[in-house]
Amino acid sequence: MKKRQFNTLAGFLGSKSSSPTIGDTVGFQGYAAIGDGGAATWQHNGITAQTPSQSPAQLGDALLNDGNGNQWSLVGVTATAKLEVNPLALGAKYDDLTDDSAAHAAGLAGLNRVGGGLLRLPSGTTRANIVNTFDKVDIVGSGRSTVIAPTSGICFSVSGIQSGFGGHIHNFNCSGINGATTGLFVDGFSRGKFGDLWLSDGLNYALDIDGDGSTEFTFENVYIHNPLIRGLRYSRTDGVDTGGVYFDTLHITGPAAGAKGIEVTSSHTSRTRAFMFANKVVLDNFTEEAMLLENVESFFISQMWATGTASGFGMLTTKDVKDCFIEQAWLQNSDAGGYNLLISGGGTSLETADLSIGQLRTSGPGTSVQFNGSPVLTRCNIGQWNDTATTKTNDDVKLSQMRCMILEGDFTVEGKTNFGGDFATLTLSAGGAVTATSSAHRIAPETGAADDMHTISGGTQGDRLTIMVNSSANTITVKHGTGNIYLDGAVDKTLDNSRDKLELVYFNGEWQQTGFSSNG
Q1: Quick one: CATH architecture of 424-517?
Q2: How many CB atoms lie under 10 A from the CB of residue 499?
């Protein structure tokens, strides 16, 4: 076998070498210039009579054709040796001026042709839009000094890898400094791993994941700075209960005004399982939601910390979400008109249910926790809650339309408490019945100035209810044992003064009296 040395690959493309034999090699000291990082060895693969003078970018593979049409394969990209490829050897420049997309595509195609391998990204800035659609291909940069910064579109996208093993992709920076709008886009990726990623410099969507075709893949050590719209967007549209994305250490900071940190949503009419697991999540300095979960279920967070100054928004906001579990959360909204935790439903059967927080710490001048949802469906379980607001009177806990909230352990309330008793007026039906919708109501006769009340619907075990007459001009007689109301001494109670109050608790299908006051 012959071994020959040339200055550059570019110069070799035009040469008309004598007929090589399989295994002959040629070496280059650079791609376009000696010492430009493109030094590599190429081997004749036995293929001849090809289009002469074709570069790897022109062939879309880790191949080249010399001036006589003899084909050469980059050593390390052969059927018998799966090693690594440096895109500089394929014509990439990493000079922050050149679109190196074709060189990267050639390297990935070459690795795929031989069943996989490693694309080793050098230091420097490339204006390439890198697209990987191949399984078993690893792509590794040289740390933050490897910058992928195209002039538009997506810096790095992974798609079409919906089965098998997606490989390892890590250790580089996607930047919007030259005009790219998305950092990393994942649309079809299975059983692979991303890690040590920096997504920075004004990207609209720093990390954008289409969850419909992706499952069981991992992110580790992801740092996002200054997203303009979303730090992380994880979206579903198909309504299929599949998925699985895992995060270990996700840090999003310094966003533009109006940007959200993490948004996990499904646009399908049925709630979709996100199967998203996150450990050590830091979301810093947001003016809207630091984390928004909407129309999804099966969301698990180990530790999270979120801060911001967001008027009218919750640092953590859940909408129509089910089975959300958070072990530890520290939420700090520094705006008096904002919320730390905002839980709401959309008024449908898909409203928030089963939110469990092991340890919750809230601080700031705004509302600690705001619940807006269906009384039938919204449930929240908080194991330990530590509220460290400087001004307690402004840091209200509002349980508006809350179905069930469980606080385990000691719970200290400083200042006023309001458990959702809006004293809305209910008018008795022809059968002397009403349906309670909050913890306090005024009762009006069906007709005339006097009426009897026999039954109260809408109760669940442990509910407490205060009832009053709607006006001193009316009289409501609450009947013992005629319906589901049971009063002390088996004696009816009369409400004929607007200050009269009857206190009840719901137990085993009955409303039982706990207190009564008569004022005239």
Answers
A1: Sandwich (2.60)
A2: 12
Greater confidence (503 vs 460) lies with 503
Tens-place pLDDT, residues 172-231: 999 999 999 999 999 877 778 999 999 999 999 999 998 877 677 899 999 999 999 999
Distance CA 479, CA 487 (A): 8
Q: Distance between CA 92 and CA 113 in Å, rounded?
A: 20
Tokens of 100: 């190196």
Distance CA 368, CA 251 (A): 23
Phi and psi at residue 215, to the nearest 5°? -155, 145
For residue 433, with 0-12 CB atoms within 10 Å meaning exposed, 13-18 middle and 19 or more buried, which class applies? middle
Per-residue DSSP letter, 256? P
Q: How far apart are CA 391 and CA 362, in angstroms?
A: 12
* Nearest in space to 189 (alpha carbons), one of 169, 212, 209, 215: 215
- The predicted-structure confidence for 270-323, as pLDDT tens digits, reads as follows 666 667 899 999 999 999 999 998 888 888 999 999 999 888 898 999 887 888
Cα–Cα distance measured from residue 458 to residue 375, given in angstroms and rounded to the nearest whole number: 9
- Kindly indicate the confidence band of residue 348, based on its pLDDT and cuts at 50, 70 and 90: low
Q: What local confidence, expressed as pLDDT, does residue 374 receive?
A: 58
Degrees, nearest 5: CA angle 135-136-141: 105
Say how far apart CA 293 and CA 234 lie, in whole Å: 10
State how far the alpha carbon of 123 is from the alpha carbons of 147, 169, 256, 331, 372, in Å.
7, 16, 28, 38, 50
Least confident span in 10-19, 57-66, 106-115, 197-206: 10-19
Backbone angles phi, psi at 104, to 5 degrees: -65, -40
What is the mean pLDDT of the segment spanning 225-251? 86
Decide: residue 211, CB within 10 A, 0-12 exposed, 13-18 middle, 19+ buried.
Answer: buried
Is the pLDDT score of 84 beyond 80?
yes
Residue 9's region, left for phi above 0, alpha for psi from -120 to 50, else beta, is: alpha
pTM: 0.77
Would you mind telling me the total number of residues written for the chain in this entry?
520
What mean pLDDT is predicted for residues 487-514? Answer: 96
CB atoms inside a 10 Å sphere around CB 175: 22
d(CA 400, CA 415): 18
Residue of 518, 520, 512 lying closest to 463 (CA atoms): 512
Span 374-401, mean pLDDT? 56
Number of other CB atoms surrounding residue 47 within 10 Å = 14
For residues 100 and 91, the answer to whether their CB atoms sit within 8 Å is: yes
Q: What per-residue confidence (pLDDT) applies to 165?
A: 66
In the chain, where the domains are located: 1-120, 229-413, 424-517
